[in-house]
């Protein structure tokens, strides 16, 4: 085997490690008799650690350079590596948070661990995709695993119903995406993002009849591609699956769906729209304006009426994805690309901070749940400051960050995105985003009021304190949001370098 081939395989080292680790996990779990499944759990965590170290090795070897491998289907660059590192951490923390909850309900099975790792593999493929084909393969691998995870509790009618809705709507969105890809392939004759971008540039530069005939064809395909991306991101009006799936799925699965897949969805949007269809930015920016506005409006306004915490956080997700799209649509101003780095940096910073907030919020629900009790309703948080003062403070940090209140990371993330929108000339959209954020602050601060100003429910008991590992991670989760709010430059500089290398 040549040195070049070895190098090509080395750039995909994290994916290979994860695939091997997932297969080893399946075999190990066959022989595990312990109900706590310690061996399976630690194999899963060891696999994630190996992938983390492998990714760091790839970064150090490549020094941030971009390399196309496997006949151009796979790209290894700084953005994919950083997003993978964030996905490993989110998945590892999700495993720790979920462990006790699943044990109490006898749901900690090898299937959960294996499907989680294979869904992560799909996310990693999406992050390194350089072809419409690779994006679709990664997307389907991730989605099929998540469909099965939603139905993990086979005795729960709500989980089964949520899985069916997710599967049917997911299949519909995949069909929309495939139809859009076929239109773009028909116009450009390629699935490779570099070649597609070049062909689109040539077609738009042509002043002849070919341009007149092909431009509507490209835009028509673009509409379906954007619709597919919007579904996976969870943007309105393609959001209908999120509340039902978040509510019906077991809380650990809701935590998984609300965290690392958002990183993969961001990567998918960047690869498709920026790497592949950047020459059509004027068209897809107009679509993203509508998606962002609808997402922020529907998400924030509908969340006010929710009494179930998981549904409230589901609508919150829709609103936050609207803010992320606000950063994506602010990159190009009338053909001027000068603000592109700042806008896409703000969007990347926002999605990473959102994942930290989402993991923490659902982690708190898992922490406050115990055998025979689900912490799902607003009333379940009444008087938490009296029964568990420290974790009430952690929840307060999480809610402040989700609402965008200083000095948390959520405030700086929203400020960065709004600054990018104003710079791009979308002042009216930035004003609407601020107004809708004020509306959204109500349902976050309502939780703070319940924790600190209401008395505990009659018969309420202090939350059972699970393993030390979970308590430490949950505390760190909240404090990291404070750290990135007070000193955001640490993460922001990383995001800027990622986008500059892109």
Tell me about this structure:
The protein has helices at residues 3-11, 13-30, 38-62, 78-104, 110-127, 132-150, 157-188, 193-205, 209-233, 241-248, 251-257, 260-276, 281-303, 309-328, 340-368, 384-387, 389-403, 409-423, 427-453, 468-486, 489-501, and strands at 67-69, 74-76. By secondary structure, it is mostly helical. It has a two-stranded antiparallel ribbon with strand order 1-2. The longest helix has 32 residues, at 157-188. It is globular, with a radius of gyration of 22 Å.
Number of strands: 2
Tally of separate helices: 21
Mean of residue pLDDT values: 87
**Largest sheet strand order:** 1-2
Approximate strand percentage: under 5%
Radius of gyration, taken over Cα atoms and rounded to an integer in Å: 22 Å
Shape: globular
Q: How helical, in percent, are the residues?
A: over 70%
- Summarize the main sheet: 2 strands, antiparallel
Span between termini = 30 Å
The H-and-E topology, N to C, reads as HHHEEHHHHHHHHHHHHHHHHHH
Classification by helices and strands: mainly alpha
Which spans of ≥5 residues are poorly predicted at pLDDT below 50? Answer: none
Would you spell out the secondary-structure blueprint of this structure?
Blueprint: H1 3-11, H2 13-30, H3 38-62, E1 67-69, E2 74-76, H4 78-104, H5 110-127, H6 132-150, H7 157-188, H8 193-205, H9 209-233, H10 241-248, H11 251-257, H12 260-276, H13 281-303, H14 309-328, H15 340-368, H16 384-387, H17 389-403, H18 409-423, H19 427-453, H20 468-486, H21 489-501
Antiparallel strand pairs: 1-2
Helix pairs in contact: 2-3, 2-5, 3-4, 4-5, 4-11, 4-12, 4-15, 5-6, 5-12, 6-7, 7-8, 7-9, 7-10, 8-9, 8-12, 9-12, 9-13, 10-14, 11-15, 12-15, 13-14, 13-19, 14-15, 14-18, 14-19, 15-17, 15-18, 15-20, 15-21, 17-19, 17-20, 18-19, 18-20
